[in-house]
Amino acid sequence: MLRKTTLIAAFVGLALGAALAPGALAATTQAPLKEVSWSFEGPFGKFDQAQLQRGYKVYHDVCSTCHSMNLLSYRNLADKGGPFYKEGVNPNESPYAKAIAKDFMVPDIDTDTGEAITRPATPSDHFKAPFANEYAAKAANGGSAPPDLSLMAKAREGGPSYIYSVLTGFTAPPAGLTVAPGKYYNPYFAGDLTSFWNGAANQVPPGGTISMPPPLKPNLVAFDDGTKATVSEEAWDVAAFLAWAAEPHQEERKQTGFAVLIYLFIFAGVLYASYRQIWSKIDH
Amino acid sequence: MSGHSTYKPKTGFTRWLDSRLPIIRLGWDSFVDFPTPKNLNYWWTFGGILALCLGIQIATGVVLAMHYVPSGLAAPGGSLAFNSVEHIMRDVNHGWMIRYIHANGASMFFLAVYIHMFRGIYYGSFKPPREVLWILGCIIYLLMMATAFMGYVLPWGQMSYFGAVVITNLFGALPIVGKSITTWLWGGFAVDNPTLNRFFSLHYLLPFMIAGVVVLHIWALHVPGNNNPRGVEVKSKADTVPFHPYYTVKDGFAMVVFLILFASFVFYMPDALGHPDNYVPANPLVTPAHIVPEWYFLPFYAILRAVPDKLTGVLCMFGAVGVLFVLPWIDRSKTRSMRYRPTARLFFLIFIVDCLLLGLCGSHEPDDKIFANLAGFTFIDSNLNSYTWLSRILGLYYFGFYVILFFLSWTEKPLPVPESISEPVLKGPALPKGATAEAEKKG
Q: Which residues from B are below 8 Å from A267, CB to CB?
């Protein structure tokens, strides 16, 4: 009886905590994220390689003009589970990674003369950043440096769905909202617009203003597989690519987890049987 | 470790070793032959689970330290520390698994320790002759908190950095010594690279101190022996079974069930207990909108913020942990197990709910409304419909619980306690057979 009460109390407490936890972010506001379905969702989810390739193209053609991805190297694109993975090909030798890398000129030192030079990148080089440093990035973007995208899909609540919602969520600001020059209203970008709002105090629009202009347009990217490049498609693909980039081992993690859980369940069964057997002789 | 040893060395080598270093005898007496009450329930398996947690944390931590760079120096994408953690996640073979096990392992460790502590309070395991055993446990808990806090700083993300700023500043509230302590913790005049370096050093040191105190904890356990759900002392050999195989198999089963929960987090929701902001590199110039500690510190964080005065808040927060040390002298009831103390049991159950709700308060901003659609009204300094007031009421009960226990020790009339572990629960009028069996089963 007591154990039951304790358990119930514990579960009620936990459920209460889980139900009310989203309220933790109530001071700044944000519209509820759009519902998006992802191939890599759920315990058996996998990345769709074609989508990752399209997503990389969106990053390469659009995002990379302002956003760095410093934690990735070109070889990562050909890693197992990556957009340009091919079975049996060493990522460092991958013709895709090599071809993508050689278009970027990266700084280096000439080991014969000691002089600063630039050379074409190789798969082992990190993604080339669009700006030399944070100050250059700020100066070129009206004072706010575009954030690095390597971990964007893990660094925001909602991950890829957040990225998709922001990219597709730009709308005209509601009447009564003052938007500063160089800023754009986005209901999915967490912020507090109270001081820019001259409407009713209890009707402050959700979201905030972002320094990034709406980056996507229809047909901004020509997909090699013939997929129609709508804004929604581009956002969906690049968000999937960023989800992969933020955690390249996600697929491996889930697959390993499945094997681990099967093992543990069998082990638990064996131990429980042993426990019953051993204790059967004890009056307790 | 106590009582008469039954170990008999069988081979020439073990006889030779036994007369020089009786280490096999120690192991035999402690973990094989050790007489253990036969009525321990599953709440007692968390001791073994905690030993497992400590082992997992040390093993994964040693490997992580081989790849981690404790430096806040800027590097493209973040800092050397931040990037080395991502290097572990991306390039080290199975590094993602080792790191996720270590990060979620901390949460699992605290989950287990909280259950272990609540069990100790409920069944009166802190009462004579186990006060030293209990205090050693409190020291382990304190060391765990320090270790976990410093470990969370190491990835050098936004939450790491600002968590370190908030917590180290708490010591600044102490009179006279406060400023010196913070400077000493920081290794400078703000949280910076020297702070990260010393936190890494201490984060590597403290677990081994925990392991040392765990040895003392087990030693102090093996002198009086285990408490048990009935809270009565072992009277005869009929009350006990040897630790092995009876409890090795029971603890083993519980450990594997616990590992199933552990693995579900590691492999399917590895970041669920973390905060997205910690995947943003530390930037002293950008303060996160909400600085929250890890879930296992939330109740204490709520107590801290419930008090308007900083120093009093800090003292209350440390007091919330400190009061545990003197629990053996607060609850003086001769009846150990709350199974036979219905009033104490009721207050204990409220205490558990209170702690969980305090955790909920800690996760919210103090001014957040509890009921979004209720306007509420200002009472003294804050809205009554805010987490500030809920934290205050809950915090009051947190300390009130100990006061209640203190007075209950005298006023409460406990139910009759069974004579021994093997005896039926009640003497006198015969109970229906089923009822007795059920009570026995509860053991």
A: 256
Same domain, residue pair B154 and B271: yes
pLDDT in tens, B15-70: 999 999 999 999 999 999 999 999 999 999 999 999 999 999 999 999 999 999 99
Mark which of B272, B291, B310 sits at the end of a domain. B291
For A279, the closest of B246, B353, B422 (CB atoms) is B246
Q: How many CB pairs under 8 A join A and B?
A: 146
| Mean pLDDT across A41-68 | 96
Amino acid at A110: D
Inspect the interface and report whether the beta carbons of B253 and A268 lie closer than 8 Å. Answer: yes
Name residues whose C-beta falls within 8 Å of residue B424's C-beta, 6 or more positions apart in sequence: B418, B431, B436, B439, B440
Contact at CB, B246 and A272, closer than 8 angstroms: no
**Do B220 and B259 lie in a common domain?**
yes
The answer to whether residue B235 sits within a structural domain is yes
What spatial distance separates the first Cα and last Cα of chain A, rounded to whole Å? Answer: 18
CATH (domain of B72): 1.20.810.10
Indicate yes or no: CB of A154 within 8 angstroms of CB of B246: no
Residue B422: list chain A partners with CB under 8 A. 283
Same domain assignment for residues B386 and B342: yes
Last residue of a domain, one of B239, B271, B291: B291
Answer yes or no: do B276 and A157 touch at CB < 8 A: yes
Q: To probe the interface with B, which of A271, A274, A280, A282 has the most B CB atoms within 10 Å?
A: A271
Do B259 and B385 share a domain, yes or no?
A: no
Q: How does DSSP classify residue B419? A: S
CB contact under 8 A, A284 and B39: yes
Q: Are residues B300 and B287 in the same domain?
A: no
Q: What percent of chain B has pLDDT over 90?
A: 87
Res. B439: pLDDT tops 80: no
CA nearest to B365 within chain A: A24
Q: Which residues contact B280 (CB under 8 A, 6 or more apart)?
A: A147, A151, A155, B157, B158
d(CA B391, CA B389): 5
Q: Does a structural domain hold residue B2?
A: no
Residue B401's domain spans which residues?
292-412
Burial A21-43 (b: 16+ CB within 10 A, else e): eebbbeeebbbebbebebebeee
To the nearest whole angstrom, how far is the Cα of A18 from the nearest Cα of chain B? 9
A278 touches chain B (CB under 8 A): yes
How many structural domains are present in chain B? 2
With a cut of 90, say whether residue A88 has pLDDT above it. Answer: yes
Give a yes or no: residue B10 inside a domain.
Answer: no
Q: Which helix (H) or strand (E) holds B40?
A: none
For residue A189, the SS3 value is: coil
Nearest to A25 among B76, B290, B352 (CB): B290
Peptide bond into B155 cis (omega under 30): no
Task: Write the residue in A24, A28, A76 that is nearest to B364 by C-beta.
Answer: A24
Same domain for B331 and B319: yes
Say if residue B398's pLDDT is above 50.
Answer: yes
Residue B19 lies in a domain: no
Place of tokens 């014969």: A112
Q: Is A254 in the B-facing interface, judged by CB distances under 8 Å?
A: yes
* A127, A255, A278, A280: best to mutate for the B interface, most B CBs within 10 A: A278
Q: Are residues B329 and B369 in the same domain?
A: yes
| B183 and B55 part of one domain | yes
Residue of A25, A156, A271 with shortest CB distance to B256: A271
